[in-house]
Amino acid sequence: MASSPCGNGNFDSGLEIKTRSVEQTLIPLVSQITTLINHKDKPKKSERTLAAIHRVGQAVSVAVGRFVAVGEAIATENQELKDEMGQACFEARRAGDAIAQLTDVASALPSQADGRVTVFSDRTGMVKAARLLLSSVTKVLVLADRIVIKQIITSRNKVLVTLDHLERVSTFQEFVQIFSQFGNEMVEFAHLTGDRQNDLKDEKKKARMAAARAVLEKCTMMLLTASKTCLRHPDCESARINKDGVFHRMRCALEQVIDIVTEARSCGENQLLPASIYNGIKDFKSSVECLRENLYSSSPQSMGSQLEALVERTEDFTDSAYTSHEQRQAILSVCQLARQDTQQLMNAWIEAQSVHAKEATEDMEVAILKTCQSIGDLRREVHKVAVGRATDLLKVHGEQLPLRALKTAGAEGNLEAVAEYSRKLTEQKEQLVETCRLLCHVSGTEPLEITCVHAEETFHVIGPQIISAAQTLALHPSSKIAKENLEVFCEAWESQLCDMALLLREINDVFEGRRGDKRPYLSLPRPGKLSANLKTAKAVKLDAEEQTSMAKLGLELRLLSSDLDTEVEKWEAQEHDIVRQSQSLASMAYNMYLFTRGEGLLKTTLDLFHQAEVCASVSLVDEEKSVVMTELEKLVALCQQLQMGAKTPVQGKTATFQKVDSSIQTTKGILAVVLYLLPFCNKLSKKYKSERSSLGSPQDWRERQDASTPVREEGALNSKNSNGFGLKSLEQHMAGLNLLESK
């Protein structure tokens, strides 16, 4: 799309706007110019209107002057863009001056008839100046955006060079030095790509970027332990295979990021996704409903072929060894019904065409409705099978039995047991890979399809890596490094299972029509923060043990918040105070989890501690205290502990890390207690509601409830003016971009 953000073809800049930051920067300018242009057909103005137009024109001119100054500073710092940027800035300044002159009251002439001042006598000049201004400003922004891309490419190149050095090291001392440099470079790359991911307008590119960054995040820790294991056991073939796999995957992920930001041919629209049942149903249904508008846009034969292609995709379900006989028969029955309804539609369609009907006949309308219904039944059936399979697998694999057995067998040096449990893990991997493929069929959106493909690839790759790590440990059972390496790969597997659980929930949300609003985030460099924006914050380095501890804590917190959401969904009364408070608690816990990954809105430790304080202020209403008093007392104590801990000032890296660890641990405790209480409260709530309904009319007990409910203080957590997150505005988070930093 090569159009300006104002949506008016008259102001087409000829440049494609790919990021939200460029688009959002242009919106105020478009608004002001639109204000001016809207008066072009009314040359005679009152003094008040004239003054307003004059202010807008001068404001545009001043804003353009400041904007051009920043653009010229960028040109000075980046010689390769100097000529292009200079020309764009010159054109923007000229257009701004023209608009200021055209809206200048002093230069306008009074009308001889009534003495009123006439402006915009040069209508063509105003439109021309507006077009030139929007075009030149957009060009400056797009050129500035190129610098962001250049920063990402430069950062990637540094990472690749260091990665090559890491792969060739032969001593621990050399490895430690180079890995320290590699870690710093990866942090820089993560921040640049994270900002870029959030700024992209294209949701498919955003999903691909998220997938690539997830690989890099998980592979960084794997690279550390796999390299250490290979250095400790240089003659071990399984250790070498394990390490080579990590390096290869990191390079592929780095290349994918660059493909996305530079729009290389291997990425974007040319990277086709597997044909999904959901998209097939959507296209087929669209073709059927289009018959209401045009009977001659396609042929009955083409519609029959389209249905058969759709039915063919269901073979991924019906041919699967893991699909039950009942599920297979249900899908086949719905497919047969869809064939019958489509055949009836085709017959009615052919009959309507034979009499040269101009619109769908009554028989056709009935057939269209029946066909759409049977296709909808097919979508529901495959969705039920895919989601049910995934849910069952997550429950079974949540116990991690093959992983535990592999760790034990490896530590005992039992190669036969490792081989046996490797086969079981391979079978588990194949089940998960196939399930991801089925979820891709029913995901409902292209970004979720991309996430499903990423999950499939991750299980496919990590499974064999766990096995090679286990083989290495079995060959060297006393090796602490080999044991640590196996732990890291197992944690990556567990992490992907967590990601799959979240993916499953998002797919269900799409299916049921629930889509959450996304908070915008802009990455375009702000003035004065172009090349030095990564040097202002001083990061506190975490050692490998601290990183592992933090990642594990975050995953545990994420699992608890996911369980809490699941428990809340079981409540019939979604407006209940307990439900609202629990949802807020789960949301805050998820933000704390994102903090441990260096993502989300909590950018500094101070943000995390502020979130902990808000989290500690959440309390559930008491329902039959005599039954759950013990758990409520635990909850109160934990909330007090979290609040006191969050308020306690600390200094230095160790103390800060300990405070973060304590805050997350206590939050986990709060979630665990709430998770224990929710089923009891739900049961009691249903019982209480039943008793009330049997004792009086709904109006009676509602009035009694209103009378007994105390008035909440204004500004409480569940006030209408609160979003329940207790977060500061985005602007207050811009100062810090590090996982941990001490004041």
TrEMBL record:
Main localization, broad class: cytoplasm
Subcellular location per the Swiss-Prot or TrEMBL entry: Cytoplasm
Protein's UniProt keywords contain Cytoplasm: yes
Segments of this protein annotated with the region Disordered: 692-726
Keyword annotations: Cytoplasm
Source organism superkingdom: Eukaryota
Biased composition (Basic and acidic residues): 700-715
GO biological process: cell adhesion; Rho protein signal transduction
Gene Ontology MF: a single term: cadherin binding
InterPro entries named among the record's database cross-references: Alpha-catenin/vinculin-like_sf, Alpha_catenin, CTNNAL1, Vinculin/catenin
A GO term from the CC aspect: cytoplasm
Keyword Cytoplasm among record annotations: yes
Family recorded in the similarity comment: Belongs to the vinculin/alpha-catenin family.
Protein name listed in UniProt: Alpha-catulin
The gene coding this protein: ctnnal1
